[in-house]
Amino acid sequence: MNLQMLINAVLLGGLYALMGIGFSLQWGISGIINLSYGAMVILGSYISLEFFNLFHLDPFISMIISGGILFVIGAGIYRTLLQPLLKGGIVFTLILTFAFRLVIENIILKVWSADYRTIRVTYAGSNFQFGDAYIPLIKFLVFFVAAILIYLTYLFMMNTKTGKGIQAVALDKEGAQAVGIDVEKMYLINFALGTALAGLTGSLWASIYSFSPHLLGPIVGKVFIIAILGGLGNIWGAAAGGLLLGIAETAGAVFLGSEWQEAIGMVIMVSVLLWRPYGLMGKKFFG
After folding, report:
1. Residue 131: what are its φ and ψ, rounded to 5°?
2. How far apart are CA 107 and CA 227, in angstroms?
3. Total count of domains within the chain
4. Does the residue 280 lie in any domain?
5. What is the CATH number of the domain that holds 82?
6. N or C: which end of the chain has fewer CB within 10 A?
7. pTM above 0.70, yes or no
8. Residue 282, domain member (yes or no)
9. 82 lies in a domain?
């Protein structure tokens, strides 16, 4: 793997890392395998597209709006649909989140159609040289912003009362209740935070890649692999899983062909499960 290929892989992995963290938090802490996660990511892309078309707002700015809107949507879904029905078990939540995915997918199809869309910013063609490699400016900015968002998420979990409450619930639900922590509130905030991260990822995705409703399924597959690789509910584990998947997909496409790009991630996931069932980091919390 030459320098150019490695840089491309790492830049892709940074976006995957941010995308996987929200799903990992929702599954690892709230216990919800959110099959609508891909729809949330793509909805964030379309929100940024609308603000770009209407107000010429850069995706790096409109991502704040996308994240805010998706946070509210995530909180609403959890409060009205998931929280009252969680006792039905994991199969019931899978059905619910898949149904919500279909709802969002059909709304997107109705409003924007199934065509692939893209956001073309003025500096999309800019790049700079690093050694023998050329780094696209916009991909570097996406990686940089994704890294900042991952670190901010970590700081929120480690240094705020709410973040510590979420950790406590993840470690010991009954113990957290015993010391007065509102468990359902922590679950709601955690699920909404994961959905907001999906929206932020969607805006960043839209700035460098085409997007359409056809991507909903593949995105869920990628975040599932990332969560398994890193360890459920682990921020740095999900970040490492995203980087590993980005490198694996890039190398697989170059050495094996693009038709193997998706399969290589599955092979790595199965290998990690056989070797380390709890993922690379092996913890359910954030230490």
Report:
1. 65, -125
2. 28
3. 1
4. no
5. 1.10.3470
6. C
7. yes
8. no
9. yes
